[in-house]
């Protein structure tokens, strides 16, 4: 087995991994290794040819490949070593990392710090248990996006999108632009799962119907999809007797994303059952010292810009840990209170500035975000589960938080 020496290994070459590697290199880490299983850096960005990237960080309205190219060019100017077509197959309990590629075979290394940036994967038809036959023409929205934007194949002509996640909304528009007819986007919940801008720009602007509280209950077809039966869902989530059939040759599933954490479970890291990613503190360190995680592997973000910001924090934290690998006690635990699904990070340790990311459980108008001892008391006109609530904590607030045993945050109607 080939031995390789490195100080920090970053697993995943998407926006989070590239930002993490760059930040570590900028802070003086001489041996940074960036690993990705694809033949090029950029991750999912390379197939996201729509615009909307870079608005938060660079005040630019880039496409995904343009956003990726910005980071790739910066990486080429550094001493960061990049291994492409290389799979991270194992992280051992002693934090040794095993890689594999077709040139070197197995590669073993013992880095001083590890940054996990594997991104996330899509839920499939099987994971949402939709009955019916198993013909061709059934794709996740991301797979269809790659077929069209990278491989140049048209997945189908008569389309139904199942679920209203952002990738599904974007693909509804993309398929329409390429001449397909998108008959419907169905959503089992009473509210859409994607960003408001995508609802407007991808569905409303193209007159694509969105059926809320509707679900596919059966798929028809033998060799190729021929149609799907759609049922109305009541407020308790049960199927009503009201159904109708849509004839189509293609179904695109956009029913949620899952943080990719098979490597994390090998360590093993403590996984948060709500987010699907490991528990982390505000330096993006996991419950295992020296192992950091960022981007969609930690929790599913709304924007690539947020992912890059988190990657930068993880890169900085890994560089600091490598220089001073002292034990660090986890700080004050953040608690998701009333009407909040989760709060990230799970623990607060820093004293300068910390950004909290939260998702609410349901859409609400005119609310107040409140926390323990009134440290946060913020009014918002609207909050939605599809859009992360971002709150920046300043040093004076963090000093108060550090005196607490736990830090609970609630979202309540403004009275």
Protein model, in words:
With 415 residues, the chain is of the alpha/beta class. The chain folds into three domains: 1-122 and 256-328, FAD/NAD(P)-binding domain (3-Layer(bba) Sandwich); 124-255, 3-Layer(bba) Sandwich (FAD/NAD(P)-binding domain); 330-415. It has helices at 15-26, 64-76, 141-151, 166-177, 196-203, 262-266, 304-323, 395-401, and strands spanning 2-3, 8-11, 32-35, 51-53, 62-63, 81-83, 87-91, 97-101, 105-109, 113-116, 120-122, 138-140, 158-162, 181-187, 210-212, 214-220, 227-233, 239-247, 250-253, 257-259, 291-293, 332-336, 340-344, 347-348, 354-360, 364-371, 377-383, 389-393, 406-413. Helix 1 (15-26) packs parallel to helix 7 (304-323).
Domains counted in the coordinates: how many? 3
What is the helix tally? 8
Average the pLDDT over all residues and give the rounded result: 95
In the predicted model, the low-confidence regions spanning at least 5 consecutive residues are none
User: What is the alpha-carbon Rg in Å?
Assistant: 22 Å
How much beta, percentage-wise? 25-35%
CATH class category of the largest domain? Alpha Beta
């Amino acid at each position: 087995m080939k031995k390789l020496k490195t100080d920090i290994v970053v697993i995943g070459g998407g926006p989070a991994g590239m930002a993490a590697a760059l930040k570590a290199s900028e802070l003086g880490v001489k041996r940074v290794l960036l690993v990705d299983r694809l033949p090029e850096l950029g991750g999912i960005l390379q197939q996201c040819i729509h615009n909307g990237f870079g608005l938060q960080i660079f005040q630019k309205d880039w496409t995904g490949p343009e956003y990726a190219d910005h980071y790739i060019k910066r990486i080429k100017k550094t001493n960061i070593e990049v291994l492409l077509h290389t799979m991270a197959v194992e992280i051992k309990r002693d934090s040794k990392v095993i890689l594999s590629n077709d040139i070197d075979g197995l590669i073993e290394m013992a880095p001083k710090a590890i940054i996990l940036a594997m991104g996330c994967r899509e839920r499939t038809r099987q994971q949402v248990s939709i009955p019916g036959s198993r013909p061709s023409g059934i794709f996740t929205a991301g797979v269809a996006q790659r077929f069209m934007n990278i491989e140049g194949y048209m997945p189908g002509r008569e389309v139904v999108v199942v679920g209203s996640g952002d990738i599904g909304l974007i693909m509804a528009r993309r398929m329409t632009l390429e001449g397909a007819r998108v008959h419907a986007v169905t959503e089992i919940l009473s509210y859409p799962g994607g960003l408001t801008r995508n609802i407007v720009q991808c569905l409303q602007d193209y007159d694509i119907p969105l059926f809320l509280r509707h679900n596919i209950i059966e798929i028809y077809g033998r060799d190729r999809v021929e149609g799907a039966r759609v049922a109305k869902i009541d407020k308790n989530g049960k199927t009503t007797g009201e159904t109708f059939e849509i004839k189509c040759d293609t179904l695109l599933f956009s029913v949620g994303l899952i943080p990719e954490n098979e490597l994390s479970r090998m360590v093993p890291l403590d996984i948060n059952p709500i987010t699907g990613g490991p528990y982390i503190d505000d330096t993006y360190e996991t419950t295992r010292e020296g192992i950091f995680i960022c981007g969609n592997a930690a929790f599913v973000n709304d924007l690539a810009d947020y992912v890059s910001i988190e990657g930068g924090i993880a890169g900085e934290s890994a560089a600091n840990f490598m220089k001073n690998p002292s034990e660090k006690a986890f700080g004050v635990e953040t608690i998701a209170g009333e009407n909040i699904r989760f709060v990230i990070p799970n623990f607060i340790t820093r004293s300068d500035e910390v950004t909290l990311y939260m998702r609410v459980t349901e859409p609400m108008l005119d609310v107040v975000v409140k926390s323990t001892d009134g440290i946060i008391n913020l009014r918002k006109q609207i909050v939605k589960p599809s859009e992360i609530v971002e709150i920046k904590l300043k040093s004076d607030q963090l000093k108060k938080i550090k005196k607490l045993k736990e830090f609970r945050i609630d979202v309540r109607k403004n009275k």
